[in-house]
Amino acid sequence: MVSLDEHYPNPCAFCKIAAAYPPDSSPIPSNPDPEKVDPQCFLLLSTPHVLAFLDILPIAPGHILLATRKHYQKLSDLHNTVPNTTPHGNSSSDAAAAREAREEARETSRALGEYLPLLSRALCRVTGIEDWNVVQNNGERAAQVVPHIHFHLIPRYQEGRREVEGRNGKVDVGMLKSWRVFGRGAREDLDEEEAAGMAKELREVMRNVPAVMRWTLASPTKLLGVHADTSRTPRAGQDGSQDGSQPQRGSADASKTRAILEERDATFLEHG
Q: Which positions are catalytic residues (predicted)?
């Protein structure tokens, strides 16, 4: 049995993947080269804040990892990563860097929350499963092997649902114990041919939810090119209006924003 330590040496393996696969115009890569890193990486998702790829030592076929792009060791590191105020005497550049770090942590948290449901839907559709685990470990005693925030999405197959070729013949993945989540044992090397096919299917499923992708890449206000507070209705007398009854730019943008949200939700339900 291959040791996890052989696959996950220092420096951080996930930072290596993040450097090899920078964010592109689309969060779902079209045909990423798995040999950009060693061992191979079967990439599913690459955004400015998160990445997703197949686990190289899966507990079950389709085992996905969702990781932060920036190196945070534990989930608690995403909260108040730097003080809200800098000590007296620090330069304005230090304050700007602190604000940037806080914003990066907030956006990363949002991205994790937005992509976990999307990856779950894709995993269910491609594998045919109805049950799966979402697991996130923090620290060595909690079975965190790679000290970099990541979530496991582990499919749980029904008995007899699917068989795969194992080292000693066919293995009924439905017989994998549902409690097998933590620890270093009972994990097989990722079959590269099977992984390439599954990664392609997962990317195709996620790519067929365009409204969700647009929502994740940018907020509705950014898509519209307006400031976040333009949806507020101006008071009487603003912008040349005497009684506030004239159509305002803010209310029109708010309607467009609602339309985008409705389109996103409808598409999500349609493809779910």
A: 150 (tele-amp-histidine intermediate)
pLDDT digits (tens, 9 = 90+) for 121-138: 999 999 999 999 999 999
Domains identified in the chain and CATH numbers: 4-208 (3.30.428.10), 220-271 (no CATH)
Between CA 172 and CA 180, with CA 178 as vertex, the angle to 5 degrees is: 95
Confidence of residue 157 (pLDDT cuts 50, 70, 90): confident
Active site positions, annotated: 150
Side by side, which strands form the sheet with 131-135? Answer: 43-46, 50-54, 64-68, 150-156, 131-135
162 CB-near residues (< 8 Å, 6+ apart) = 61, 127, 128, 172, 173, 174
